[in-house]
């Protein structure tokens, strides 16, 4: 079953009522410890690549697929950063759909391909210094980025 149909069917049944959704995010860093962010088309916020798990898909498969769909990049070794849930992962989309994410967040510095926006979910894609991020970071992403910043300051060879 395609995810679009799955979520669409759920939304027809529950309207904008909050859903608990399993999602994944990937912090892609370059050799200068800059992280890849995408500017979302729907709300203009910057966030790491990621998205919602398809039915029957593993979380690692979701990570690989979502990064490719949103950036056209292939990623390599995934290292688990953390799992995030609760009030910090509450999001209301511009159309009123409400979700609480259970977000599994990985990081990697292994990637290939030339990134470009997909024109659907992302308007811009850029590497940013972890210390000089854009102002409009998606609120659900702030804990991931802070944790990665702490980790990278402890271990320069991520």
Q: Overall mean pLDDT score?
A: 91
Domain tally: 1
Which fold name fills CATH's third level, the topology? Nucleoside Triphosphate Pyrophosphohydrolase
Termini separation comes to 37 Å
Shape category? globular
Kindly estimate the percentage of residues that lie in beta strands according to DSSP: 25-35%
Helix coverage percent: 10-25%
Radius of gyration of CA atoms, rounded to a whole number: 15 Å
The helix/strand order is: HEEEEHEEEEEEH
Features:
158 residues, alpha+beta, Nucleoside Triphosphate Pyrophosphohydrolase, three-stranded antiparallel β-sheet, globular, hydrolase
Structure write-up:
The protein is α+β, with helices and mostly antiparallel strands and 158 residues long. It has three helices and ten strands. The strands form three sheets. Strands 1, 4, 6, 7 and 8 form a five-stranded mixed β-sheet that branches. Strands 3-2-10 form a three-stranded antiparallel β-sheet, with no helix packed on it. The chain has a two-stranded antiparallel ribbon with strand order 5-9. A hairpin with a 5-residue loop joins strand 2 (34-40) and strand 3 (46-47). The mean pLDDT is 91. Its cofactor is Mg(2+). This is Nudix hydrolase domain-containing protein. Keywords: Hydrolase.
């Amino acid at each position: 079953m395609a995810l679009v149909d799955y979520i669409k069917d759920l939304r027809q049944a529950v309207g904008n009522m909050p859903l608990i959704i399993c999602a994944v995010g990937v912090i892609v860093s370059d050799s200068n410890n800059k992280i890849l962010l995408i500017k979302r088309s729907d709300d203009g916020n910057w966030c790491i690549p990621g998205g919602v798990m398809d039915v029957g898909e593993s979380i690692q498969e979701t990570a690989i697929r979502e990064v490719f769909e949103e950036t056209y990049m292939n990623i390599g070794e995934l290292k688990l950063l953390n799992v995030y849930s609760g009030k910090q992962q509450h999001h209301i989309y511009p159309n009123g759909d409400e979700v609480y994410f259970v977000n599994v967040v990985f990081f990697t510095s292994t990637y290939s391909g030339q990134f470009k926006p997909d024109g659907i979910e992302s308007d811009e894609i850029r590497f940013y210094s972890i210390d000089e991020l854009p102002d409009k970071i998606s609120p659900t992403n702030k804990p991931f980025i802070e944790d990665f910043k702490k980790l990278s300051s402890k271990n320069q060879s991520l």
